[in-house]
Design a protein that fits this description.
The protein is α+β, with helices and mostly antiparallel strands and about 450 residues long. The protein has two domains: about 5-85, Roll (Ubiquitin-like (UB roll)); about 105-435, Glutamine synthetase/guanido kinase, catalytic domain (Creatine Kinase, Chain A, domain 2, 2-Layer Sandwich), CATH 3.30.590. It contains 14 helices and 17 strands. The strands form three sheets. Strands 1, 2, 3, 4, 5, 6 and 7 form a seven-stranded mixed beta sheet that branches. Strands 12-8-14-17-16-15 form a six-stranded mixed beta sheet. Helix 6 runs antiparallel to helix 9 and helix 12 (about 400-410) packs across helix 13. The longest helix has 21 residues, at about 195-215. The protein starts with a helix and ends with a helix. The model has no long low-confidence stretch (mean pLDDT about 95). The structure holds magnesium ion (MG). Magnesium ion binds near residues 121, 123, 178, 185 and 232.
């Protein structure tokens, strides 16, 4: 697709050439349609050091080459079109750029005839403009999930976002008030992993933009309000024989529903092995699926006001039961409930594919199926790994998982570990009120 022709046909005046850095920050340049023809070939120039990509000021220009297949005309500002871009430098792909990391995983899977499809549930809160309180002072119920009155008080925001997803052809099918006061979830159809990552990325941009338009602030922060359920980003996963509409066979589906704890739930042997890879690498994956200091206020959280945290603290899986890290809700797929709203949309998909493929390669066993309420009976599970208690534990777990690091790429892994360690050090040197309160009179 020639972008200058697209602009003329659709009344686009500006293209937003966007890439996502290692911390999930979305960076963009606005390029007038008159200049897009050259930019489509050569890319938009960025100083990589100015973003979180582990570059120095001495690095040459990084060029973000737009992917025309990702083009989305902003439904709320139709003169602008958004393009996800793939960063290159001196003719080589920037190895640690998250969209490139994901594309490498997708290519590695495709070489084996495997095509991962995913759906993501990107929960968010609507806060006041300055983020200091919830946007809705009447949203105070003890169990606010599916609250009819509360969802209608934010109908104008929810409807506008959902209308846009309908217009974009994402197949949205439900919207609800979630389990925390001020929290919402909107679901759209699953798709190829790269499409889901682009949409997840765009959904965050769109939701923040529409919330701002209505005088609110949307946040995907993992635990924005102490004592309330946090923002998850649950991912539903299956693997198919072909990408896009050519997909005919779900390799996670099975006809023989006997013989193993996974088969009984309708998950094939290959699905069980993919899940086995996720289970094996889960504590290391947390560095990517739960990437911030705040993420660990959601994972390992004490029970919230509503009575459940809806987030795991242990590496366990089960059937249709939301108290575990992995749920197999029905035949042919499973849900990873580990990730939170801070997860980088591209790295989230990449680490799932990386861990899953390693499991398929080694024939990994997902281990025991625990058909129990983990919130009430978790203490009886003795041999399952606990998820990291904080970001430092997660970075260390990732850093010591040589297999996962090399599958995701050494350049990416060392850049990521380095920047995340620096972030942890910044947090650790921050002087908190808590330590004063607990130490002043010692
Ligand atoms: Mg939810």
């Amino acid at each position: 697709m020639k972008l200058n022709e697209y602009a003329a046909k659709n009344g686009v005046n500006y293209f937003m050439i966007s890439f996502t850095d290692l911390f999930g920050g979305q960076r963009a340049k606005l390029v007038p349609a008159q200049a897009i023809a050259d930019m489509q070939e050569e890319g938009a120039g960025f100083a990589g050091f100015a973003t979180w990509l582990d570059m120095t000021p001495a690095h040459p220009d990084m060029l973000a080459i737009p992917d025309p297949s990702s083009c989305i005309q902003l439904p709320w500002k139709r003169e602008v079109a958004w393009l996800a871009a793939n960063p290159v430098m001196e003719g080589e792909e920037v190895a640690q750029a998250p969209r490139n990391v994901l594309r490498r995983q997708i290519a590695a899977a495709a070489e084996k005839g495997l095509h991962v499809k995913t759906g993501v549930e990107a929960e968010y809160f609507l806060m006041s403009k300055d983020g200091s309180s919830l946007s809705d002072e009447f949203d105070t119920a003890e169990k606010p999930c599916y609250d009819q009155q509360a969802v209608m008080r934010r109908y104008d925001v929810v409807r506008e976002i959902c209308d846009y997803m309908l217009e974009l052809g994402w197949g949205p099918y439900q919207n609800d008030h979630e389990d925390a006061n001020g929290q919402f979830e909107m679901n759209w159809e699953f798709s190829d992993a790269l499409v889901t990552a682009d949409r997840h990325s765009f959904f965050k941009f769109m939701t923040k933009s529409i919330a701002e338009k209505h005088g609110f602030r949307a946040t995907f922060m993992p635990k924005p309000v102490e004592g309330l359920t946090g923002n998850g980003a649950h991912v539903h996963i299956s693997v198919w024989d072909a990408p896009g509409d050519d997909a005919k066979t779900n390799m996670f589906a099975t006809d023989s529903t006997e013989g193993s704890p996974t088969a009984e739930l309708g998950l094939s042997e290959r699905g069980a092995n993919f899940l086995g890879g996720i289970m094996k690498h889960a504590t290391a994956m947390a560095a990517i699926t739960n990437p911030t200091v705040n993420s660990y206020k959601r994972i390992n959280a004490p029970r919230t006001l509503s009575g459940a945290t809806w987030s795991p603290n242990t590496v366990t899986w089960t059937g249709n039961n939301r108290t575990h890290m992995v749920r197999v809700p029905g035949p042919g797929r499973f849900e990873l409930r580990l990730a939170d709203g801070a997860a980088n949309p591209y790295l989230l998909q990449a680490v799932i594919i990386a861990a899953g493929l390693s499991g398929m390669k080694s024939g990994a066993d997902p281990g025991k199926r625990w058909d129990i309420d983990m919130y009430a009976e978790g203490h009886i599970v003795k041999d399952a790994p606990k998820l990291p208690l904080n970001m430092l534990d997660a970075i260390r777990a990732y850093d010591s998982d040589g297999e996962l690091k090399s599958i995701l790429g050494d350049e990416f892994s060392s850049a990521y570990v380095k920047l995340k360690n620096r972030e942890w050090n910044s947090f650790a040197s921050h002087f908190s009120q808590w330590e004063k309160e607990h130490t002043l009179d010692i």
